[in-house]
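Suppose you are handed a protein chain with no further information: no name, no annotation, nothing but its sequence. What can you learn? This example shows the usual starting point.
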Amino acid sequence: MEWEPSENGGVPETYTLLWKEENKPYWNAITIPSATTSFYLQDLTPGKKYKVKLAAGNIAGKSNGTDIVAF
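A reasonable first move is to predict its three-dimensional structure. Written in structure tokens, the prediction is:
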């Protein structure tokens, strides 16, 4: 996955990448430093469908996140 850096007003921030199998109830999450704008999801099962979204966070809180993308 790749994304464009968010507008952060100069405040250090992190990204939280969330993903899950389409029919599972729980999301997996990883926090990524703000200097990173890509991440390789590993150990996905071929033939399964997944959903993913990204949220930005800083001292003021977390964003609502992106729209969910299915693949």
